[in-house]
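The passage that follows is intended for readers who have already worked through the single-chain material. We present the inputs for a multi-component assembly, then the predicted structure in tokenized form, and finally a short commentary. You are encouraged to pause after the input and sketch how you expect the pieces to fit together before reading on.
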Amino acid sequence: MRLDKFICDSTELTRSLAKKALHRGDVCCDGEVVKSSSFKVLPTHKITLNGVELSLIGTRYLMLNKPVDTICSTIDEVYPSVLGLLDIEKVDSLHIAGRLDADTTGLVLITDDGQWSHSVASPKRKCPKRYRVQLADPIGSELIETFANGIELRNEDGPTLPALLEIINPTEALLTITEGKYHQVKRMFAAVGNKVVGLHREAIGAIELDAELELGEWRYLTEAEVKSVK
Ligand code: URA
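Having made your guess, compare it with the prediction:
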């Protein structure tokens, strides 16, 4: 890899700032100043910038327990972006795999791997997402079949795909859906005359929200979690 690219991929510097640092003599390879942008970096080389050793950042996969009043956008809008909760380098190169509403909490996956996030979020992949739902009014067991059969939502072409409803108590349930239509869970319950008063995503495919993570906390995914997304 060229030295200027190595600097960009291991710091927050743009290509032109990396070149400036090189020209200033701020960059060393194995203790010797190197000024050439095209210098070939080998795996055995120790590259430093102002005396600090650099290492490549690589592809990143994270889970975050989203708090309320944050949004799954890469920029701050009415509420701040969840990316602001990440105290890591190169946050700008990360994006969110599938959105949650501002008032929804729970599992959010964040990465810089576009293909991987497509597998999580694309409706064609039918990746199951499990939500814990708090309801304003009691639900009956007949709703299990209603949701399994699919229901019509306004302004949608066809019924929702079969969804799995597990009733925990009259006003709390787990709902697993394989689509991600706009406000889908809230609209499904609204369509049967109820109201979602609390919504928390617990799982995406085989990835379960880590119970150790408080709201607003995050961790890197394990290799097995990353690979569980096909
Ligand atoms: N369904 C909703 O209604 N809201 C979410 O945030 C996620 C799924």
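Commentary: The CA atoms of residues 141 and 167 lie 7 Å apart. The mean pLDDT is 95. How closely did your sketch match?
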